[in-house]
Design brief:
By secondary structure, the chain is mainly alpha-helical. Helices cover 85% and strands 0% of the residues. It is elongated.
C-alpha cells in the first residue's frame, strides 16, 4: 500500500518538475541533431501539424 502511494507521489513529482522546466528540457532535447531530425520528421507526419505549418508558410488562412 505504502509502496504504491510512494510511486504515485514520485511520478507526480517528476511530472511537476518536468512541467516547470519544459522549455529547458525541450532546448536540451533539440540540441542534438539526430533527435531534432527525428522529432521534426515525426511531427510533420501528423496532419494537424503539417497543415498548420503549411498555412503559416504559404500565408493561407
Amino acid at each position: 500500500m505504502w509502496k504504491m502511494v510512494l510511486q504515485i507521489f514520485a511520478i507526480g513529482a517528476v511530472i511537476y518538475v518536468g512541467y516547470q522546466n519544459r522549455y529547458r528540457l525541450l532546448n536540451v532535447a533539440l540540441s542534438s541533431g539526430a533527435l531534432r531530425r527525428f522529432l521534426v520528421t515525426r511531427s510533420l507526419d501528423l496532419p494537424v501539424v503539417r497543415d498548420r505549418m503549411m498555412q503559416s508558410v504559404l500565408g493561407r488562412g
